[in-house]
Amino acid sequence: MSELVTFGETMLRLTPPRGHRLSRVDNLDVHVGGAESNVAVGAANLGVEAAWMSLLPDTELGERIAYALRGEGVEPLVTWTDTGRVGTYYFERGGMPRGRDVVYDRDGAPIREATPESVAVDRVRDADVFFTTGITPALSDQLIETTASLLETASDAGATTAFDVNYREKLWTPAAARSTLSDLFPSVDVLFAAERDARDVLGFDGDPETVARDLADAYGFETVVITLGEEGALALHDGTATSRGTYPTDTVDPLGSGDAFASGFLAERLDGASITEALDYGAATAALKRTVEGDMARVSRDEVRALVENGGRTDIER
């Protein structure tokens, strides 16, 4: 049994050295990353018994992903396949005015054909929290059905279901996302949504509290968390709205910050913390993750606790 079970695709991320262009690069750094596995890793490093569920090809690259997650304390609930390939993506860092760029190469990944029967559905039933994101149903029609089934299974078993909208414009249109996600939401207890996704994808506008209340009224969520970028986050729970800001950070790698926030929030809620405390730990986990290369929040509970208790100071002796 795991306290947290997540489901989704994990890929290999290939990154040129800082300041280099993909079209000119001679070497690439390799990281393992995927929204759902990132949440599992972040939570595991904060003391949660976490598992990640997916399909991978039975190849050296598939094992590379499982090896990385095991090393972070996450149990890989992998169904190994004889066909398919590991998806990859390329992340080119770029300062202003050029900005960063992400190039995906994920066709042929076996998770696109995942059915409820092909994954460890019993572990979903036994979990305290089941988590996935909008990236997963965006990958294929089959995954729309499978995601819906797993959310319903978890909900029927009494697990808390948590879902991050995590819209990716390279995967689907706002209209397609809204249609699909609206059908999934009745089985979701805790919703995470960036303010821009709530507005541009889900069609809810207004100040953050209004958006959270409208979402809760429309779909019956127990908790709605609206992330606000540099302004922090707002959570609505039991009719009460709570806001928290961010912690100052020197950004080494921004990817995975939202996943880190979700992992910190869920870890604290699993530990019986209040919504206010969960927001604080989510923000601290996200801030610390940005100081670490790669997609995963390789940060400890002691580091997160110290950041929260010291009000964002970084010159802390432990």
UniProtKB/TrEMBL annotation:
<dbReference type="InterPro" id="IPR011611">
    <property type="entry name" value="PfkB_dom"/>
</dbReference>
<comment type="similarity">
    <text>Belongs to the carbohydrate kinase PfkB family.</text>
</comment>
<dbReference type="Pfam" id="PF00294">
    <property type="entry name" value="PfkB"/>
</dbReference>
<dbReference type="InterPro" id="IPR054871">
    <property type="entry name" value="KDG_KDGal_kin_Halo"/>
</dbReference>
<dbReference type="InterPro" id="IPR029056">
    <property type="entry name" value="Ribokinase-like"/>
</dbReference>
<keyword id="KW-0808">Transferase</keyword>
<feature type="domain" description="Carbohydrate kinase PfkB">
    <location>
        <begin position="1"/>
        <end position="296"/>
    </location>
</feature>
<dbReference type="GO" id="GO:0016301">
    <property type="term" value="F:kinase activity"/>
</dbReference>
<protein>
    <submittedName>
        <fullName>Bifunctional 2-dehydro-3-deoxygluconokinase/2-dehydro-3-deoxygalactonokinase</fullName>
        <ecNumber>2.7.1.178</ecNumber>
    </submittedName>
</protein>
<dbReference type="InterPro" id="IPR002173">
    <property type="entry name" value="Carboh/pur_kinase_PfkB_CS"/>
</dbReference>
<dbReference type="InterPro" id="IPR002139">
    <property type="entry name" value="Ribo/fructo_kinase"/>
</dbReference>
<keyword id="KW-0418">Kinase</keyword>
<dbReference type="InterPro" id="IPR052700">
    <property type="entry name" value="Carb_kinase_PfkB-like"/>
</dbReference>
